[in-house]
């Protein structure tokens, strides 16, 4: 019983770990992607209207 | 008569410099259009959840009024953004849109959806205590929810179709379509 | 474009010439209905993702157990995802070669792929049990990542039409 709970906790811990770090990667990559996109648009606007 | 008034109004809008500026600005127009479409995820998304709860298809163990009231604010927020960006889109292309049969159908469906929502809310608030915890809402409200889903599906479809020029006034349309689109003889 | 040495162009050429692509090309009405269904499933995905993630962030439905919200939303999410994939394949096949050369199409496919893996391999297994066992920081980070991902899928998708 005790062991089972421990096992479940460990499994959840591993899942939490994976979920946390993959989420951080997604957020960082997403932010970089959108910053680049928005910068590109701003540059185009500047080229068009000065 | 009405068509002439609408067309005059559209031409007046069209003559304003802001209207053509928005229409001709690649980024601004696309940005407004994207916001209009993507806000579907907020407005229609919340509406779907509320209507599905009324139909007994989701979160049946949660009181219906809680789902409806808690999600009302994001839904109204989404609707406001869609409404404002929708007005801007009309402002950018007023003449063609005024004579678009799809836009006209969409407008009628929007009014119907608004009326339906008003009736729905009145009925819901009248007697919510008696059925709030039931997995399914009473019959009239279920019809209301189903009608709401149908009307909004129509609004989305006709909205999407505005982009197509199949029945634009410059085409050889049947009399019925030309009449419904409000095409004026030049 | 493609992965390494594998060039996917022949596949896209085939997509455009097969029956599905031909139907989409020839019948504007059928194509428009596909687009409309695509948009409605977009709304459904938006609704289920927002309800789930905003609940995890304690923004909406705070007085409803998050397990109930998440489980119910996931069922409809799966249905909407099925419809949006089916209509998306239909729409893309009619203009497959143009899609192949469109960078936003690839950005969308990549984020969609990451999104599906994230939901079914990470988010769903994590949220299946009691949420009180999970660290609130992890729940919030997962919610923000999910919002970011699905917004990117939708926004890059919308931008395909403009470029």
Describe the structure.
- The complex is a heterotrimer of chains A (50), B (186) and C (163).
- Chain A is an all-alpha fold.
- Chain A is built from one helix and no strands.
- Chain A has one domain.
- Chain A is 96% helix and 0% strand.
- The longest helix of chain A is centred in the middle third of the chain and has 48 residues, at 2-49.
- The two termini of chain B are 14 Å apart.
- Chain B has helices at 2-14, 17-24, 26-38, 40-54, 64-92, 94-98, 101-131, 139-161, 175-181.
- The relative contact order of chain B is 0.14.
- The model of chain B has no long low-confidence stretch (mean pLDDT 93).
- Chain C has one domain (11-160).
- Chain C has a two-stranded antiparallel sheet.
- In chain C, α2 crosses α4 (66-94).
Radius of gyration of chain C: 18 Å
Classify the beta-strand content of chain C into a percent band: under 5%
Order of H and E elements of chain C? EEHHHHHHH
Give the tally of structural domains of chain B: 1
The biggest beta sheet of chain B reads: none
> End-to-end distance of chain C, in Å?
17 Å
Number of helices of chain B: 9
Q: Give me the Rg of chain B, rounded.
A: 19 Å
Measured as a percent range, the helix fraction of chain B is: over 70%
Q: What's the total number of strands of chain B?
A: 0
The poorly predicted ranges of chain C are none
Number of strands of chain C: 2
Mean pLDDT of chain B comes to 93
User: What's the shape of chain B?
Assistant: elongated
Task: Using brief descriptors, characterize the structure shown.
heterotrimer; A: 50 residues; 96% helix; rod-shaped; C: 163 residues; two-stranded antiparallel ribbon; 7 helices; elongated
Short description:
The complex is a heterotrimer of chains A (50), B (186) and C (163). By secondary structure, chain B is mainly alpha-helical.
């Amino acid at each position: 019983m005790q062991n089972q709970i421990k096992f479940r906790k460990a499994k959840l811990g591993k899942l939490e770990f994976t979920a946390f770090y993959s989420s951080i990667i997604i957020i960082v990559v997403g932010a970089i992607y959108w910053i680049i996109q928005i910068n590109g648009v701003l540059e185009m606007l500047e080229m068009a209207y000065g | 008569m009405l068509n002439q008034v609408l067309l005059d109004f559209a031409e007046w809008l069209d003559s304003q410099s802001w209207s053509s500026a928005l229409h001709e600005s690649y980024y601004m127009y696309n940005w407004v259009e994207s916001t209009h479409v993507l806000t579907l995820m907020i407005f229609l998304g919340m509406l779907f959840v509320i209507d599905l709860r009324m139909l007994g298809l989701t979160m049946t163990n949660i009181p219906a009024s809680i789902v409806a009231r808690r999600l009302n604010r994001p839904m109204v927020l989404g609707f406001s953004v869609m409404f404002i960006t929708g007005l801007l889109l009309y402002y950018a292309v007023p003449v063609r849109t005024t004579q678009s049969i799809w836009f006209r159908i969409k407008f009628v469906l929007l009014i119907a959806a608004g009326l339906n929502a008003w009736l729905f809310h009145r009925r819901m608030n009248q007697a919510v205590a008696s059925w709030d915890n039931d997995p399914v809402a009473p019959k009239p409200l279920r019809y209301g929810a189903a009608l709401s889903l149908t009307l909004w599906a129509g609004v989305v479809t006709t909205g999407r179709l505005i982009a197509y020029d199949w029945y634009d006034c410059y085409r050889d349309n049947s009399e019925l379509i030309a009449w419904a689109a409000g095409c004026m003889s030049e | 474009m493609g992965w390494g040495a594998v060039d996917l162009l022949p596949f896209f050429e085939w997509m455009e010439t097969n029956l599905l692509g031909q139907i989409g090309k020839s019948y504007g009405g059928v194509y428009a209905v596909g687009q409309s269904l695509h948009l409605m499933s977009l709304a459904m995905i938006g609704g289920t993702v927002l309800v789930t993630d905003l609940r995890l962030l304690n923004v909406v439905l705070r007085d409803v157990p998050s397990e109930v919200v998440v489980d119910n939303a996931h069922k409809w999410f799966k249905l909407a995802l099925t419809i949006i994939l089916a209509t998306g394949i239909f729409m893309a096949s009619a203009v497959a070669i143009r899609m192949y050369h469109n960078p936003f199409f690839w950005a969308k496919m990549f984020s969609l792929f990451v999104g599906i893996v994230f939901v079914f391999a990470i988010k769903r297994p994590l949220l299946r049990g009691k949420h009180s066992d999970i660290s609130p920081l992890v729940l919030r980070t997962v919610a923000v990542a999910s919002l970011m991902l699905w917004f990117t899928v939708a926004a890059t998708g919308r931008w395909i039409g403009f470029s």
